[in-house]
Amino acid sequence: MSLKLLVTGANGQVGWHLQRTLAPMGEVMAIDIEQVDLTDLDAVSRTVRDFAPDIVVNTAAYTAVDKAESEPELARAINVAAPEQIAKECARTGALLVHYSTDYVYEGSKPSPYEESDATGPLSVYGETKLAGDRAIMATGCAHIILRTTWVYDIRGKNFLRTVLRLAREKEELRMVGDQYGAPTWARGLAESTTIILARLLERKSATSSWQSGLFHLTALGTTSWAGFAQAILEDYEDLLAWPAETGEFGGELKAKRVVAITTEQYQTPARRPRNSVLSNAKIQAAFGIALPDWRAQLRLALQDAIR
């Protein structure tokens, strides 16, 4: 009997890659807002029940961090109520739910990487709703794997990498926050790692007849600031200009050659962000043998992927 996998957020950064990495595992049904409105809980339940998946991978989320401050109800509907409804359906059938969470659940003042056991303390509506979603999933009693990640980017979609390249074509110099730290994590690396985790969970389930559950951090290794990330994008992009590339977003010279680091106070936003978004990967390495590459190595791979 073929494995059935349901992926939400199909057009998002991670969801797009998951459709490809999960395909060898079984039948993949990928849905996005065009197919199912996540604020319609009846539609959410109906979709899960009709497809009857063995595994649901929920990448869908309200991720507009600043806009969430003025749209808390919508953020809560998508980040709390929808995953809770999916989790209830999984609990009913015994399906496994894989759900992605965020570093924004932490307050960000810890001087070292955050462990899964550390106290949470979100600073924003986005962080509050993502934390509430994590807790709602756990409370249903469904089998679940919650993966908290940070600073996700890709060569498609709306993200920091593409924003930097756009700005670098318009400006001579970029000003980016230099006192917030994290690990930029490529969406494809998350999708590939998720697929490996699922393969190992299936092996264990065949031996124990039950799914393993848990909360894990999954990010690239290493640490940088937003300013450091932006500078690396400019440098690696310039290094790859000699490669054959199509004209367009990932081809041609950039105006900007350097990045000036500014403080959080100099870049005011509606939502507060954690200063330290670095997450420890020790637990997931021990549980599944998963270790993503260093963030700079991932960035170069992503840019190479863009110009092939």
Low-confidence stretches: none
- What is the gyration radius calculated from CA atoms? 19 Å
So what's the CATH class of the domain at 3-153 and 185-220 and 278-292?
Alpha Beta
Strands ordered across the widest β-sheet: 2-1-3-4-5-10
Explain what this protein looks like in three dimensions.
With 308 residues, this protein is of the alpha/beta class. The protein has a domain at 3-153 and 185-220 and 278-292: NAD(P)-binding Rossmann-like Domain (Rossmann fold, 3-Layer(aba) Sandwich). 41% of the residues lie in helices and 17% in strands. It has 9 helices and 12 strands. Strands 2-1-3-4-5-10 form a 6-stranded parallel beta sheet, sandwiched between helices. Strands 6-9 form a two-stranded parallel ribbon. A two-stranded parallel sheet has the order 7-12. Helix 3 (72-93) links the parallel strand 3 (55-58) and strand 4 (96-102). The radius of gyration is 19 Å and the shape is globular. It starts with a strand and ends with a helix. The mean pLDDT is 92.
